[in-house]
């Protein structure tokens, strides 16, 4: 019975309905107009959409069960291994850094906008380094391993990634004056939207969301981010406001002529939990052991994925630049053919 009770509690926790259920049982329906009440109604939306997305996958005969299976195993593993680490890091950083912040924001609409821009900058930094530093890529690659996009990908993270991400994002926000109450509000909104943008084609065929595609980061933009097509690699690092991608030149729209191909460029078994979760760490260890000299060993750890001490680099930047050159040469050849035809 204890096992069944534990399983029941885990299911309730995953669905995020426990808080709303407690409020319903209390009979205090006015509580749903409070912040906690609103959160209790919003939180279950993503898990319920995930279940609906899975059902639609079976209806359309495109369930991608391999992706769901591995992501579910990752979720269970992370629940036991990294349950409280990220929360502890956020609490520690707030306690250490808030006293030295030059100023403090307040819970107003204009400070909320400021706070969100600051949070998005912190998110951009963490996400950018997660793609550009090999050690951090080992933590982040688990999230990019699935060869299909769906809401279960939200749970596909190495257990140390959340502490690393929250350390950077919280540090940036607290040092720039974002008070904890405002920070937690932003984290909730950003986490909910960050889960939603992983919604798959089974549920939402066109992820552009109409005119919103020109204003915020949509599921379409995030599908581009998860794609391994050369044009799409290492783009769209933001989560909701794509301001920093536009500032730093990493913004990329989805091209209708280029079919999205999800996953990572390394040959791997995306249905194997250990390869998805630890595969990049194993590859890094092999490269470090095989590298000549201490300098090269260190460079393998801090340089982008695909960097090689031999100079034969296969980084995302090299791959993307090569694709653009080939595309430009093709355009020139077509122009010449047209002129010859005339």
TrEMBL record:
Assigned GO CC terms: endomembrane system; membrane
Subcellular location: Endomembrane system
Fatty acid hydroxylase domain mapped to chain residues: 113-250
Entry annotated with the keyword Repressor: no
InterPro entries for this protein: Fatty_acid_hydroxylase, Sterol_desaturase/TMEM195
Keywords: Lipid metabolism, Membrane, Oxidoreductase, Transmembrane, Transmembrane helix
Transit peptide found in the keyword field: no
Membrane topology, record value: Multi-pass membrane protein
Name of the featured protein: Sterol desaturase/sphingolipid hydroxylase, fatty acid hydroxylase superfamily
Organism: Arenibacter troitsensis
